[in-house]
Structure formats: C-alpha cells, structure tokens
Amino acid sequence: MLKAVLFDFNGVIINDEPLHEKLLAQILVEENLRANPDEFREVCLGRSDRACLHDLLLRRGRVVSDEYLTGLVARKSRYYQQQLEALEAVPTYPGLTDLIFKIRVANLTMAVVSGAVRAEIEWVLNSLNLAQYFSVIVAGDDITTSKPDPAGYLLAVDRLNQQNPGLALRPEECLVIEDTFAGIEAGKRAGMKVVGVANSYPYHMMQRQSNWAVDYLSELELDRVLQVFLGREKPEVKD
Questions:
Q1: In this model, does residue 15 exceed pLDDT 60?
Q2: Which of 21, 124, 194, 216 is the most buried (most CB within 10 A)?
Q3: What was the pLDDT predicted at 41?
Q4: What's the per-residue H, E or C state across 46-113?
Q5: Residues sharing a CB contact under 8 Å with residue 169, sequence separation 6 or more, in sequence order
Q6: CATH code for 4-15+92-229?
Q7: CA distance 239 to 211
Q8: Are 235 and 211 in contact (CB under 8 A)?
Q9: CA 153, CA 232: separation in Å to the nearest integer?
Q10: Residues with Cβ < 8 Å from 234, sequence gap 6 or more?
C-alpha cells in the first residue's frame, strides 16, 4: 500500500528553474568563465548545485577542491535567498496546496528529497506555511551524490523509519513526484513509483519516463494512485 509521498523541490514545489539558471551563469561570470545558455538543461536540471557546478567548471578545464566548490555553492545559495526575499510572493505551482491537503486527508507521510541546499528548502517551506507537513527533508547537504543516484530517496525512507519506527516504510510503498529525467530515474532506481509533472519538460516526455504523468499537480488523481498501490488498477505507464 502507499504510505509516503516524496516531493522533489525545485520545479515541483517552487517554480525557480529560471532563477537557478541565471544564478549559475552569474557564478561562472564571477569566476571569469563564459556561461552557455544551452548547458543548463543538459548539465544542471534535476541535479544538485554541487554536481552542476563541478561539471560546468570541469567542462571549462577548471578543477577545484571540495572546499572551493563548497564556497561556490554557498555563494549561489546566498544569492538565491536574496532574490527570493525581494519577491512579493514565492513562485509556486497551481494545485500544490490542494494536493498536499489531499495527501494529508489520506493520512500519508510526506518528505522532501532534493539536491538543493537545506537552508533554501526550509526558507521556502516556511514562507509557504508548508514546513509542518513534511516530516523529513533530505537536502543536498545530506548526501555526496546527486540524482539520478537513488541515495537521497533511500535516505528519506531510512529517516522516516527512524522518526516513526511503527511506519515500517519500504521503498515500494513510496510515491515520488518529480519534474526531471534525473529525478524520475532516481525514484525508479530506489524502487519507487514516480509521477512526472510537466513543469520542466513536455507532458509526452514525462509520460514516457514515469509511471504517471500530469500537466499540472492539480491533475494528479490521488484516489486512482492509491488503487494502483492496492493492486486494484494498473499504472498508467509501465516501468
């Protein structure tokens, strides 16, 4: 049965991918390197800032220490929070709060699994008054790998079980909500079923990759998903 819903953060909870692209380009310029607008989707979308910056620098022949890379990630995070604080409202997606309400009514546990910096995730969730609904946050600070590696999703299961041993959660009892190919692959490699929401890629591309695909979070029929987990319906898209 379905016991937990694990949300990606960037591109699912907050509509901030254009901001990330802008700030990554700014970091490159500050490092006296040329930004390439075609690289963001190829190298960074769905991956942690650390992995993204590492690969962007490596492509330009720049090899840096872990400590230096940590400094770049921290600098970008400062810029990110400054940009969000200057906005009148946090940019999110239609249907998010309604979906969270439906998940709560179904008595399902929720967590966030993201390569984003923890401080960013916590700031956004608090600003949206959603922090209290997520039992666990697995952030980029917690893992050394990036999606499509499944480590973040598996760590979320471990932490949810530590928090509530009676839950006895297994990966196959989790539903992942993702917007990128790397995230979908990470969820599947963790042994979980995945909803692909077409916030970053077109619906038909999400449909080919995920167990379910929706254009908007408001279109996710949680009742039907629950029936699939109970074995009463087949998934919309095969693994």
A1: yes
A2: 194
A3: 87
A4: CCCHHHHHHHHHHHCCCCCCHHHHHHHHHHHHHHHHHHHHCCCCCCECCCHHHHHHHHHHCCCEEEEE
A5: 3, 4, 109, 157, 160, 161
A6: 3.40.50.1000
A7: 6
A8: yes
A9: 26
A10: 228
Can you read off the two tokens belonging to residue 232? 């009463």
Amino acid at the residue 231: G
Query: What's the confidence (pLDDT) of residue 235?
Result: 57
Length of the chain: 239
- Tell me if 118 sits within 8 A of 143, measured CB to CB: no
Residue with tokens 């079980």: 161
* Token reading at 137: 């946050």
Which amino acid, one-letter code, is at 64? V
In the chain, where does the domain assigned CATH 1.10.150 lie? 17-85
* 69, 54 Cβ separation under 8 angstroms: yes
The pLDDT, as a whole number, for residue 231 is 83
Question: For residue 136, how many other CB atoms are within 10 A of its CB?
Answer: 22
H or E element that contains 184: helix 181-189
d(CA 223, CA 147): 28
| Other beta carbons less than 10 A from residue 8's beta carbon | 29
> Is it the case that residue 237 has pLDDT exceeding 50?
no
Choose among 107, 132, 104, 91: nearest CA to 9.
Answer: 91
